[in-house]
Design goal:
Rossmann fold, 8 helices, 12% strand, alpha/beta, 43% helix, 6 strands, phosphoadenylyl-sulfate reductase (thioredoxin) activity, 6-stranded mixed beta sheet
Length: 207
Protein backbone atom coordinates (compact mmCIF):
# COMPACT_ATOMS: atom_id res chain seq x y z
CA UNK A 1 0.00 0.00 0.00
CA UNK A 2 1.74 3.16 -1.23
CA UNK A 3 0.87 6.22 0.86
CA UNK A 4 2.55 9.58 1.16
CA UNK A 5 3.43 11.16 4.51
CA UNK A 6 0.65 13.69 3.94
CA UNK A 7 -1.91 10.93 3.36
CA UNK A 8 -0.70 9.13 6.49
CA UNK A 9 -1.10 12.28 8.58
CA UNK A 10 -4.65 12.84 7.33
CA UNK A 11 -5.60 9.22 8.04
CA UNK A 12 -4.17 9.45 11.55
CA UNK A 13 -6.51 12.34 12.27
CA UNK A 14 -9.45 10.30 10.96
CA UNK A 15 -8.48 7.15 12.83
CA UNK A 16 -8.01 8.69 16.28
CA UNK A 17 -10.73 7.27 18.51
CA UNK A 18 -11.76 4.63 15.96
CA UNK A 19 -11.98 1.04 17.34
CA UNK A 20 -8.84 -1.01 16.58
CA UNK A 21 -10.88 -3.61 14.71
CA UNK A 22 -12.02 -1.00 12.19
CA UNK A 23 -8.48 0.26 11.65
CA UNK A 24 -7.27 -3.31 11.14
CA UNK A 25 -10.11 -4.09 8.73
CA UNK A 26 -9.24 -0.99 6.68
CA UNK A 27 -5.55 -1.92 6.54
CA UNK A 28 -6.20 -5.58 5.66
CA UNK A 29 -8.61 -4.54 2.90
CA UNK A 30 -5.96 -2.37 1.26
CA UNK A 31 -2.94 -4.59 1.95
CA UNK A 32 -1.38 -7.04 -0.45
CA UNK A 33 1.05 -8.73 1.97
CA UNK A 34 0.22 -7.90 5.59
CA UNK A 35 2.12 -9.33 8.55
CA UNK A 36 1.97 -8.85 12.30
CA UNK A 37 5.09 -9.04 14.45
CA UNK A 38 5.20 -10.13 18.05
CA UNK A 39 7.61 -10.98 20.85
CA UNK A 40 4.84 -11.99 23.31
CA UNK A 41 5.74 -9.18 25.71
CA UNK A 42 3.06 -7.61 27.98
CA UNK A 43 -0.16 -6.72 26.15
CA UNK A 44 0.94 -8.29 22.84
CA UNK A 45 -2.10 -10.52 23.16
CA UNK A 46 -4.31 -7.53 22.29
CA UNK A 47 -2.85 -6.97 18.81
CA UNK A 48 -2.69 -10.72 18.14
CA UNK A 49 -6.32 -11.19 19.13
CA UNK A 50 -7.54 -8.15 17.18
CA UNK A 51 -5.62 -8.82 13.97
CA UNK A 52 -6.26 -12.58 13.86
CA UNK A 53 -9.94 -11.82 14.47
CA UNK A 54 -10.03 -9.87 11.21
CA UNK A 55 -7.73 -12.11 9.17
CA UNK A 56 -7.20 -15.59 10.59
CA UNK A 57 -4.32 -16.66 8.36
CA UNK A 58 -2.18 -13.54 8.65
CA UNK A 59 1.52 -14.43 9.13
CA UNK A 60 2.59 -13.79 12.72
CA UNK A 61 6.33 -13.16 12.67
CA UNK A 62 7.94 -14.11 15.96
CA UNK A 63 11.62 -13.21 16.23
CA UNK A 64 12.61 -15.25 19.28
CA UNK A 65 15.87 -13.97 20.77
CA UNK A 66 16.38 -17.27 22.58
CA UNK A 67 16.38 -15.51 25.95
CA UNK A 68 12.67 -15.57 26.79
CA UNK A 69 11.56 -16.73 30.22
CA UNK A 70 9.82 -20.10 30.63
CA UNK A 71 6.59 -18.21 31.38
CA UNK A 72 6.84 -16.28 28.13
CA UNK A 73 7.39 -19.47 26.11
CA UNK A 74 4.37 -21.07 27.78
CA UNK A 75 2.36 -17.89 27.14
CA UNK A 76 3.37 -18.03 23.46
CA UNK A 77 2.25 -21.64 23.18
CA UNK A 78 -1.06 -20.88 24.87
CA UNK A 79 -1.84 -17.95 22.57
CA UNK A 80 -0.74 -19.82 19.46
CA UNK A 81 -3.16 -22.63 20.25
CA UNK A 82 -6.02 -20.48 21.51
CA UNK A 83 -5.94 -17.94 18.66
CA UNK A 84 -4.80 -20.45 15.99
CA UNK A 85 -1.93 -18.13 15.14
CA UNK A 86 -0.07 -18.63 11.87
CA UNK A 87 3.34 -18.38 13.57
CA UNK A 88 6.43 -17.82 11.44
CA UNK A 89 9.38 -18.34 13.76
CA UNK A 90 12.71 -16.61 13.21
CA UNK A 91 15.67 -17.25 15.49
CA UNK A 92 19.31 -16.11 15.56
CA UNK A 93 21.76 -18.09 13.42
CA UNK A 94 23.93 -18.74 16.47
CA UNK A 95 22.55 -20.73 19.40
CA UNK A 96 22.08 -19.11 22.79
CA UNK A 97 24.46 -21.64 24.36
CA UNK A 98 27.20 -20.79 21.88
CA UNK A 99 26.79 -17.05 22.41
CA UNK A 100 26.67 -17.44 26.19
CA UNK A 101 30.00 -19.27 26.07
CA UNK A 102 31.82 -16.58 24.08
CA UNK A 103 29.96 -13.34 24.80
CA UNK A 104 27.18 -13.66 27.33
CA UNK A 105 24.78 -10.71 27.48
CA UNK A 106 26.87 -7.52 27.16
CA UNK A 107 25.92 -4.46 29.18
CA UNK A 108 24.73 -1.36 27.35
CA UNK A 109 28.15 0.32 27.62
CA UNK A 110 29.98 -2.77 26.32
CA UNK A 111 31.23 -2.35 22.71
CA UNK A 112 29.89 -5.83 21.98
CA UNK A 113 26.31 -4.80 22.80
CA UNK A 114 25.64 -3.60 19.23
CA UNK A 115 26.86 -6.92 17.82
CA UNK A 116 24.73 -8.81 20.35
CA UNK A 117 21.61 -6.81 19.39
CA UNK A 118 22.28 -7.39 15.69
CA UNK A 119 22.62 -11.14 16.24
CA UNK A 120 19.63 -11.82 18.47
CA UNK A 121 17.11 -9.26 17.21
CA UNK A 122 17.93 -7.21 14.14
CA UNK A 123 19.28 -9.91 11.81
CA UNK A 124 16.33 -12.32 12.35
CA UNK A 125 13.91 -9.42 11.86
CA UNK A 126 15.60 -8.25 8.65
CA UNK A 127 15.55 -11.85 7.40
CA UNK A 128 11.83 -12.13 8.10
CA UNK A 129 11.03 -8.87 6.33
CA UNK A 130 13.17 -9.89 3.35
CA UNK A 131 11.29 -13.19 3.15
CA UNK A 132 7.78 -11.72 3.35
CA UNK A 133 8.32 -8.28 1.78
CA UNK A 134 5.17 -6.94 3.49
CA UNK A 135 3.46 -3.71 2.52
CA UNK A 136 1.56 -3.53 5.84
CA UNK A 137 3.11 -4.32 9.22
CA UNK A 138 0.87 -4.54 12.28
CA UNK A 139 2.56 -3.71 15.59
CA UNK A 140 1.51 -2.96 19.14
CA UNK A 141 3.48 0.28 19.45
CA UNK A 142 1.89 2.66 21.93
CA UNK A 143 2.38 6.29 22.81
CA UNK A 144 4.39 6.80 26.00
CA UNK A 145 6.64 3.75 25.60
CA UNK A 146 9.75 5.54 24.29
CA UNK A 147 10.67 8.96 22.93
CA UNK A 148 10.79 7.56 19.40
CA UNK A 149 7.36 5.98 19.67
CA UNK A 150 5.92 9.26 20.94
CA UNK A 151 6.87 10.73 17.57
CA UNK A 152 4.86 8.11 15.66
CA UNK A 153 1.09 7.53 15.43
CA UNK A 154 -1.50 4.90 14.53
CA UNK A 155 -0.06 4.86 11.01
CA UNK A 156 3.59 5.51 10.21
CA UNK A 157 5.98 4.67 7.41
CA UNK A 158 9.12 2.65 8.04
CA UNK A 159 12.35 3.76 6.40
CA UNK A 160 11.69 1.02 3.81
CA UNK A 161 8.26 2.43 3.01
CA UNK A 162 6.27 -0.26 4.80
CA UNK A 163 3.06 1.03 6.40
CA UNK A 164 3.22 0.34 10.14
CA UNK A 165 -0.22 0.04 11.70
CA UNK A 166 -0.51 0.37 15.48
CA UNK A 167 -4.27 0.19 16.21
CA UNK A 168 -3.81 0.50 19.99
CA UNK A 169 -1.38 3.44 19.73
CA UNK A 170 -3.47 5.82 21.90
CA UNK A 171 -4.53 3.18 24.43
CA UNK A 172 -3.16 3.10 27.99
CA UNK A 173 -2.65 0.07 30.23
CA UNK A 174 -6.04 0.52 31.91
CA UNK A 175 -7.84 0.43 28.57
CA UNK A 176 -5.87 -2.64 27.49
CA UNK A 177 -6.60 -4.35 30.80
CA UNK A 178 -10.31 -3.80 30.11
CA UNK A 179 -9.89 -5.23 26.58
CA UNK A 180 -8.16 -8.33 27.93
CA UNK A 181 -10.85 -8.76 30.59
CA UNK A 182 -13.63 -8.37 28.00
CA UNK A 183 -12.25 -11.21 25.89
CA UNK A 184 -10.84 -13.23 28.81
CA UNK A 185 -7.30 -13.02 27.43
CA UNK A 186 -4.14 -13.82 29.41
CA UNK A 187 -1.31 -11.32 29.78
CA UNK A 188 2.41 -11.90 30.29
CA UNK A 189 4.52 -9.68 32.57
CA UNK A 190 7.51 -11.99 32.99
CA UNK A 191 9.01 -10.96 29.64
CA UNK A 192 12.76 -10.36 29.30
CA UNK A 193 14.44 -8.45 26.48
CA UNK A 194 18.22 -8.98 26.68
CA UNK A 195 18.95 -6.06 24.31
CA UNK A 196 17.09 -3.27 26.10
CA UNK A 197 18.60 -3.25 29.61
CA UNK A 198 16.41 -0.25 30.45
CA UNK A 199 12.62 -0.54 30.19
CA UNK A 200 12.17 2.71 28.25
CA UNK A 201 14.96 2.02 25.76
CA UNK A 202 13.96 1.54 22.09
CA UNK A 203 14.20 -2.08 20.94
CA UNK A 204 15.87 -1.22 17.63
CA UNK A 205 13.28 -2.55 15.19
CA UNK A 206 11.40 0.74 14.85
CA UNK A 207 14.27 3.18 14.65
Amino acid sequence: MALTEEQVQKLNIQFKGIPPEEIISWAVKHAQIPVVTTNFRPYEVAILHAVSGVRKDIPVVWCDTGYNTPKTYKHAEELTDRLSLNIKLYVPKQTTAHRDAIMGIPQIDDPRHAKFTEQVKLEPFKRAMADFKPDVWFTNLRKGQTALRDSLDILSLSKDGVLKVSPFYHWNDTQLDAYLKKYNLPNEHNYFDPTKVLENRECGLHS
